[in-house]
Write a structure and sequence with these properties.
Elements (H helix, E strand, L loop, with lengths): L1 H17 L9 H4 L16 H12 L21 H13 L10 H18 L6 E5 L2 H18 L5 H4 L8 E5 L4 H9 L8 E3 L19 E6 L11 H11 L2 E5 L24 E5 L11 E5 L2 H7 L29 H36 L3 E2 L7 E5 L3 H14 L5 E5 L2 E7 L7 H15 L25
Parallel strand pairs: 2-3, 2-4, 4-5, 5-6
Antiparallel strand pairs: 1-7, 6-7, 8-9, 9-11, 10-11
The structure holds pyridoxal-5'-phosphate.
The site of pyridoxal-5'-phosphate (PLP) has 13 residues, from α6.
Length: about 475
């Protein structure tokens, strides 16, 4: 087994070392051998070393280099060195993080990381955390806690009696709510389309002046960091209105919550401590491996009541914090270990520097693209940039050309009726040179194919001509 693990470590290290110099999306040639992995179930065993060899030789090139420095799709971070190394060691540990008795180290590191995160993100002292798969589940947990407490206050036990016949709850969302919040509402029986939608402004911020009357049976879903613009809902106004009405505020801060860690961006999260629950992703801006989301709730009893696993005699309880009482899962991997490792290695200043650096790199993208004559569609307040290359067809063609070129990877979106390319800078390893090379690739993708010799458009910083068809 030792030789095998050394082999795996070497292959993994080689993969990571090659991330910056390979095409970000795999070329057809790089995925061509995947068919070799698709065969009938082997009738007999294969040597583990051979299994690993197949996986590396065929699988490693058929990945997308989302862990590399020039992947700007979704809001995907890579893996910090300490977080990836911790992930490998934790894989060897193979801990079941649900119960304290099944992993003292996992339970303790979650507890420690929760305390550090409360401090770093400016959350109230009574806040508890559940370590879940991602922000979708973190939103689910926060809204489940809201559903529990608001119905309990009306004498209804939703976990025991369900929603049939329950007093109604009103859920208020901004018009640019993230789709995962709507999914969470649908899973909770609160209804994706039963929500009250509040108009948003041009940056996607919920308009506080258009909030409906709130009451003790209202949940307001606010957003810290719009996935397209990076904009924050007006949290101080929302939280104040909710407090007066005894309503619940849930904040989707999948990536935006981390702005609290960067002194120059923290003003964006002002008022955040006035909410009741928060969702974030560690696999986005904190740069830990998938899957890693965190749900925070300032009403720990409501969260644990909502996540209750009806007690079985064999589940040993303790007086201490039991991890499973704050998550939907019972058995699960010990993802808090990587969160602890990332925070331990970066410290407060390191998380702040990571957030600030990526925000500045987003600004660099916007400045260079604007200087080339392109239109930036959002106010670049965080790590998100949206750029238009002209008509929807032109922008769509440029996005396809950028993806095919392989220097970097960006996806598309439609923002308030306009087709745009999205750039999210979230990786700890991205440098200014990565931004410059990516801008050059984008401008080349946007420019017509050069006509004559000596006019290689490649890497020339000249203005793009969005009115001409892209290649
Ligand atoms: C990414 C994201 C989510 C969903 O996160 P997952 O980790 O994919 O579940 C929710 N809300 C916002 C604002 C996001 O950016």
């Amino acid at each position: 087994m030792t030789d095998l693990l050394h082999d795996a470590a070497e292959r993994g290290a080689r993969y990571v070392a090659g991330l910056a110099s390979r095409p970000v999306a795999p070329t057809p040639a790089m995925t061509a051998r995947l068919a070799e992995l698709d065969h009938p179930l082997p009738s007999d065993p294969t040597e583990p070393a051979e299994v690993l060899r197949l996986l590396d030789e065929i699988g490693s090139s058929a990945t997308v280099a989302t862990a590399g420095p020039r992947y700007f799709g979704l809001v995907t971070g890579g893996s910090l060195p300490a977080a990836l190394a911790a992930n490998w060691l934790a894989g060897a540990w193979d801990q079941n993080a649900g119960l304290l008795v099944s992993s003292p180290v996992a339970a303790r590191l979650e507890e420690v990381a929760t305390g550090w995160l409360r401090e770093l993100l400016g959350l109230p002292a009574e806040t508890e955390a559940g370590f879940v798969t991602g922000a979708t589940m973190a939103n689910f947990c926060g809204l489940a806690a809201a559903r529990h407490l608001l119905l309990e206050r009306q004498g209804w036990d939703v976990e025991s009696d369900g929603l049939f016949g329950a007093p109604p709850l009103t859920v208020v969302v901004g018009d640019e709510v993230h789709t995962s919040v709507l999914k969470a509402l649908s899973l909770l029986g609160l209804g994706r389309d039963r929500v009250v939608r509040v108009p948003a402004d041009g940056q996607g911020r919920l308009r506080a002046d258009r909030l409906p009357p709130l009451g003790p049976a209202t949940v307001v879903c606010a957003q810290a960091g719009n996935v397209n613009t990076g904009a924050f809902d007006p949290l101080p106004e929302i939280c104040e209105r909710a407090r007066e009405a005894a309503a619940w505020v849930h904040v989707d801060g999948a990536f935006g919550l981390w702005a609290a860690a960067a002194p120059a961006r923290a003003h964006l999260t002002a008022g955040i401590a006035g909410a009741d629950s928060w969702a974030t992703d560690a696999h986005k801006w904190l740069n830990v491996p998938y899957d890693s989301g965190i749900t925070f709730c300032r009403h720990p009893a409501a969260l644990s009541a909502a996540m209750t696993l009806h007690r079985a005699a064999y589940l040993i309880q303790s007086e201490r914090r039991e991890p499973y009482v704050y998550t939907p899962e019972a058995s699960r991997r010990a993802r808090g270990i990587e969160v602890w490792a990332a925070l331990r290695s970066l410290g407060r200043s390191g998380v702040g520097a990571l957030v600030e650096r990526t925000c500045r790199l987003a600004r660099r993208f916007a400045d260079q693209l604007e200087a080339a004559g392109l239109e930036i569609l959002n106010e670049v307040v965080l790590n998100q940039v949206m750029v238009s290359f002209g008509t929807p067809e032109q922008t769509t063609r440029v996005i396809a050309a950028v993806q095919e070129d392989g220097t970097c990877w960006c996806g598309g979106t439609v923002w308030q009726g306009r087709t745009a390319m999205r750039i999210s800078v979230s990786n700890w390893a991205t440098t200014e040179a990565d931004v410059d090379a990516s801008v050059a690739a984008m401008l080349q993708a946007a420019a017509p194919i050069p006509a004559g010799p000596g006019r290689s458009g490649a890497l020339s910083p000249g203005p793009a001509r969005p009115s001409r068809p892209a290649r």
